[in-house]
Amino acid sequence: MMEKTSDFRVLDADPFNGGTPPERLAESYLTPNDVFFVRSHAAVPAVDLATYTLTVEGMVSTPLALSLADLSAAGERFARRRMVAALQCAGNRRVELQTLAPIPGELIWDTEAIGNAEWGGVLLADVLRAAGVALDAELHVAFEGLDCVSAKDELFGGSIPLRKALDGDTLLADTMNGVPLPPAHGCPLRVVVPGWVGARSVKWLARIIVQDAPSDNYYQKHAYKWFPSDITAETVDWARGMMLGELNLNTLIGSITPAAGGIIVRGVALAGERTVEHVEVSADGGTSWTGADMLDPASRYGWRRWEARLMLPPGEVEIAARAWDTAAATQPERLEAVWNFKGYMNNAYHRVRATV
Ligand code: MTE
């Protein structure tokens, strides 16, 4: 399949799913498209660009049917925007949670399911205003893609609250790192909900529906839900649970390389809708910490790469990393603290073993 590098980590060939190898995670501020993770629940749909139409319907006064020309006519109807935002799958870092108990039926990601890109497109808020959306904070904006997930006999979809849709940052993107969206990433149009779990950034977008409740789609109503730690696959009531939205504070170790007298640790950190303030690493299980240098400026939605040098005697060592955000919050220490039976949102200290 497709336009990915030879070291791209493939987790599943059909549908194609995979991501960035750890040593390349913090290589550049923007993750190149050919190593950017792919999370797809079905095959890439065939889209005829000539007849492609995005509809905006539901609780709006003027339903719209927009062609690609309508959407991209520079500056005519909708102003074009560019925004750097990290995208992360809610299941990233599931492999660590699986050391506590099996998590059947899910992709077992290590740190591959995250990337940072510059997205270009038009604001969802502008399109919703053009459709005469009701300004009611209780409404929801549902998205539907063109890919049919055969096991569910359903198109992929999801929703976000209207207040997020109108925040002036959520994009209908047609470019990724300066080029048209590659097929695997949603060509010709996708949603980018910055600071939120990747599942809401619906690819191959075809319908936007304004409605008075969250989407009924399987991937909103059933999957991508968070349950408290005492709930199990046997006791779960799917009508309960929290529909995942904003991402939590997280930091991921990418590479650990030898340096004179020690090691250099590099990684990335992100903070949902907040901003990463500081990252630190520990070589003694969290008793003492060394501050990392932040390699990128503070950004609301883009990640910040970081680098720390540790002087260490030769031997085996476990490196732990944690970030702090602008609310002075940091990450939980232990995996047990973040356990949920579907294995979402793991943001415990990231620990990686290395040899000095
Ligand atoms: N949109 C559609 N139409 N189909 C999908 O399977 N997967 C979602 C989201 N949008 C998905 C989708 C999930 S779970 C994630 S994490 C992101 O897309 C991944 O985006 P990417 O493949 O561009 O990295």
Task: Give a brief outline of the structure.
With 356 residues, this protein is mostly beta strands. 8% of the residues lie in helices and 37% in strands.
Note down, in words, how this protein is organized.
- With 356 residues, this protein is mainly β.
- Helix content is 8%, strand content 37%.
- It contains six helices and 22 strands.
- A five-stranded mixed sheet has the order 4-3-12-7-8. Strands 5, 6, 9, 10 and 11 form a five-stranded antiparallel sheet that branches.
- Strand 3 (54-58) and strand 4 (64-66) form a beta hairpin.
- The two termini are 38 Å apart.
- The mean pLDDT is 96.
- The structure holds ligand MTE.
Structural class: mainly beta
Radius of gyration: 21 Å
Provide the low-confidence segments as ranges: none
Outline type: globular
| Largest β-sheet summary | 5 strands, mixed
Question: N-to-C terminal Cα separation, in Å?
Answer: 38 Å
Q: What is the H/E string?
A: EEHEEHEHEHEEHEEEEHEEEEEEEEEE
Helix content: under 10%
Write down the oligomeric state.
single chain
Question: How many strands?
Answer: 22
Number of distinct helices: 6
